[in-house]
Design a protein that fits this description.
The complex is a heterodimer. Chain A is an alpha+beta fold. Chain A has a single domain (2-200), classed as Gcn5-related N-acetyltransferase (GNAT) (Aminopeptidase, 3-Layer(aba) Sandwich). Chain A has helices at 14-31, 79-82, 122-138, 149-157, 185-195; strands at residues 2-6, 38-39, 42-43, 53-58, 65-73, 99-107, 142-148, 163-171, 174-182. Chain A has a seven-stranded mixed β-sheet with strand order 1-4-5-6-7-9-8. Chain B has two domains: 12-183, Transcription factor LuxR-like, autoinducer-binding domain (Beta-Lactamase, 2-Layer Sandwich), CATH 3.30.450; 186-247, Orthogonal Bundle (Arc Repressor Mutant, subunit A), CATH 1.10.10.10. In chain B, 50% of the residues lie in helices and 11% in strands. Chain B has helices at residues 12-25, 31-44, 73-81, 90-96, 111-122, 152-179, 193-203, 208-215, 219-232, 238-247, and strands spanning 49-54, 66-69, 101-102, 128-135, 141-148. In chain B, strand 4 and strand 5 form a beta hairpin. In chain B, helix 1 packs antiparallel against helix 2 (31-44), helix 1 runs parallel beside helix 6 (152-179) and helix 7 (193-203) packs across helix 9 (219-232). Chain B is elongated, with a radius of gyration of 21 Å. The chains are: A alpha+beta, B alpha+beta. The A-B interface holds A 4, 6-9, 50-53, 71-73, 75-77, 82, 85, 91-99, 134, 137-142, 182, 207-211, 213 and B 1-7, 9, 96-102, 104-105, 134-137, 139, 156, 163-168, 170-172, 220.
């Protein structure tokens, strides 16, 4: 199940937020060797201060964190503009109220393993389906995101292959790319089929009601 | 080159309407132009009202709101007189949200709120509403709201059909308000020392990377200062910002 939490409401979800920052430290600092700042075992940056929307995958029964990502509109501060502009052709600016950025897509290694007979893990598909459901309800036409080569293969296997923009660069130990995902019903159906997902992945109550109702 | 998303989603008969509005934004020069366009959005989309509220706009003192609304003067007067900012639950809830905020999600369950919404309905604000939080490039925030008297089912259909239109119109409206000169008189434009330095070197024909070297800053920081200055100077590009700064005598020649 995917929970949607506005950054401004983070104090109401302190344990989950802490678990997410710790997981991000494991994923981005230890595993991917990105140059991120880890404090007290937690990774967070200035974009967490910009009131992003967090999508958090939790186990339906235990409520434990499985994976997460954050969304920011490209009209305000965002990573592609402010941190990774080298991934875009030199004069390209992505700034549109209907294009949002997904960043810090993360899960632990165990959650990356596909179930038998599947090519992509459930949590991967669940997170992508969550973004897509929210986008379709909120008037977001595209998601732009930065990802590494391994993730690119996973995305293609999930039926969610993006259009690459610009050329890749080596960041940390990984070749890193920027890509654009068009948010459509077909895209959602492909991702759900790849993950064996039926029905909505979003938690029925909470932040989403803002857009869904 | 700014990325232009594919907007072919819109229902075909409304496409023309949406694109007409998009084209119009460039022609808005003054706040009355913006206000007139807001009324046209209400009319053409068959809304009850529309409202724009800027919260931390550059040049507007902190804590001071900046609004353009189509509500009746009676309602606006009453709202301000009775300090309904204190009561109205939509604004703080929508401001905390990133996604479009439907007014039906606020709690109507106490007496004060029931009276507030009752009055709002008497003054024909619209029973249904949707507020679009806007995040600007300088970190400023604003809210663009549309309201309607459609029945629940028709409202749901209307929202699905026009969500992306309003998401886009909301942001363009915000940009148009920032661009208009009258919001901020030129005497009020305050550029920081770094912004003045960057603009001055840009005026002298230096590139971003040359300015970065001269001022011992990163190129990204230079771009940032110039971009902030550009918005403060209500300019669409750096060249225009430089020439405007020059005519205002805020930059010094090197």
């Amino acid at each position: 199940m995917i929970l949607c939490i506005n950054g401004s409401d983070r104090d109401q979800h302190q344990d989950l937020m802490k678990a997410m920052y710790q997981q991000r430290a494991r994923v981005f600092s230890e595993r991917m060797k990105w140059d991120v700042v880890v404090r007290d075992g937690m990774e967070y940056d200035e974009f967490d201060e910009q009131n992003p929307l967090y999508l958090i995958s939790v186990d339906d029964r235990t409520g434990r964190l499985r994976g997460s990502l954050r969304l920011l509109p490209t009209t305000g501060p965002n990573m592609l503009r402010d941190v990774f502009p080298q991934l875009l052709p030199s004069d390209q600016i992505i700034e549109s109220p209907t294009v949002w950025e997904s960043s810090r897509f993360s899960m632990d290694v165990e959650a990356m393993a596909p179930l038998p007979g599947r090519r992509v893990s459930y949590v991967t598909c669940e997170l992508i389906a969550g973004i897509t459901e929210i986008s379709l309800k909120s008037g977001i036409s595209h998601i732009v995101s930065v990802f590494d080569a391994a993730m690119y293969r996973v995305l293609k296997a999930a039926g969610a292959g993006p259009d690459l923009i610009g050329s890749g660069r080596k960041i940390g130990v990984c070749m890193t790319y920027a890509g654009l995902f068009e948010m459509t019903d077909d895209f959602l159906n492909a991702v759900c089929a790849a993950g064996g997902i039926t029905g909505s992945v979003l938690q029925p109550q909470g932040a989403l009601q803002n857009a869904a109702a | 080159m700014t990325f232009v998303p594919d907007l072919t989603h819109a229902a075909s008969q409304e496409d023309g309407l949406f694109y007409d509005f998009i084209d119009r934004f460039d022609t808005l020069k003054t706040l009355p132009d913006c206000r007139a366009l807001l009324y046209e959005i209400v009319r053409e989309y068959g809304l009850s009202n529309a409202a724009y509220l800027g919260v931390n706009l550059p040049g507007v003192p902190r804590g001071q709101h900046f609004g353009i609304v189509t509500y009746s003067n009676e309602w606006v007067t009453r709202y301000i007189h009775l300090n309904y900012f204190r009561v109205d639950p939509v604004i703080p809830s929508a401001m905390r949200s990133l996604l479009p905020f439907d007014w039906s999600n606020v709690d109507h369950n106490n007496l004060e709120l029931r009276r507030f919404f009752g009055e709002a309905s008497e003054f024909k604000v619209g029973l249904q509403g949707l507020s679009f939080p806007i995040r600007g490039r300088l970190g400023e925030t604003a809210l663009f709201s549309v309201s309607s008297n459609l029945k629940d089912r028709d409202w749901a259909t209307f929202r699905r059909r026009f969500m992306r239109d309003f998401q886009t119109l909301a942001f363009y409206f915000h940009e148009a308000v920032l661009r208009t000169e009258t919001l901020l008189s030129e005497n009020d434009i305050k550029l920081s020392r770094r912004e003045v330095e960057c603009l001055s070197w840009a005026a002298a024909g230096k590139t971003f990377s040359e300015i970065a070297t001269i001022l011992s800053l990163s190129e990204r920081t230079v771009k940032f200062y110039l971009d902030v200055a550009r918005v403060k100077l209500r300019s669409t590009n750096i060249t225009q910002a430089v020439s405007k700064a020059a005519t205002m005598n805020v930059i010094r020649p090197y």
